[in-house]
Amino acid sequence: SQQGEEDPQALSIQEGENATMNCSYKTSINNLQWYRQNSGRGLVHLILIRSNEREKHSGRLRVTLDTSKKSSSLLITASRAADTASYFCATAETLNDMRFGAGTRLTVKP
Amino acid sequence: DSGVTQTPKHLITATGQRVTLRCSPRSGDLSVYWYQQSLDQGLQFLIQYYNGEERAKGNILERFSAQQFPDLHSELNLSSLELGDSALYFCASSVDPGDYGYTFGSGTRLTVV
What HEC string does A29-88 produce? Predict the structure, then answer.
């Protein structure tokens, strides 16, 4: 069963714009992670935020976590065509069975 | 190259058959995780092994089994295959998922005909 749910399911923007994706989850978590998947390829780990952190940055990525609302958001600034991919949030109560949401499919038009 | 190696990359087989998918984790990673990704079910956690022992079980069917060997490579065995088993099967490994997350392989695409 999936733990996280991403929103929106699909997002289409122009190059240079910002992209925001949201993730909601149901149970308590140890940490929340975001991954990217290019079509038919393996998932690539982007960023991890611990349950006691509220915001984290990595390059053009900004992740926020609100444990009271059980939600997280991923912001990609100044998007590029190469950012076109599916983005997944993943959560785990323990660290042994990470559960992934259905993903947000991001299309960045050049 | 992520460092996690999965073979074969593609597999086509008939219903009722049995196949074995292989995964070599990244050097130094003791944990191996198996996931199934299909269009209708998304990415489903199947099973996790840590240093040869089963640690967690997810939505793994009884027709499926896995093991991790002393050299830390892992195999996922799928038997009595059905059309609905057609999917991408991913292996991931980690040294410390609490700090570094998972490293995924490029997957095995299984097609059951």
Answer: CCEEEEEEECCCCCEEEEEEEECCCCEEEECCEEEEEECCCCEEEEEECCCCHHHCEEEE
At A69-88, the pLDDT tens digits run 999 999 999 999 999 999 99
pLDDT tens for each residue of A14-38: 999 999 999 999 888 888 999 999 9
The answer to whether B68 and B48 have CB atoms below 8 angstroms apart is no
Integer Cα distance of B2 and B90 in angstroms: 13
Joined together, the tokens standing for residue B77 give 């065995």
State chain A's mean pLDDT as an integer: 91
Query: Closest Cα of chain A to B65: distance in Å?
Result: 17
- CA distances to A24, A40, A70, A91, B11 from A51, in Å: 14, 30, 10, 10, 40
Say if residue A1 is exposed, middle or buried (CB neighbours under 10 Å; 0-12, 13-18, 19+): exposed
Residues comprising chain B, all counted:
113
- A52–B contact, CB cutoff 8 A: no
Nearest-angstrom CA–CA distance, A109 and A82: 10
B41 token code pair: 């079910």
Is B97's CB within 8 Å of A97's CB?
no
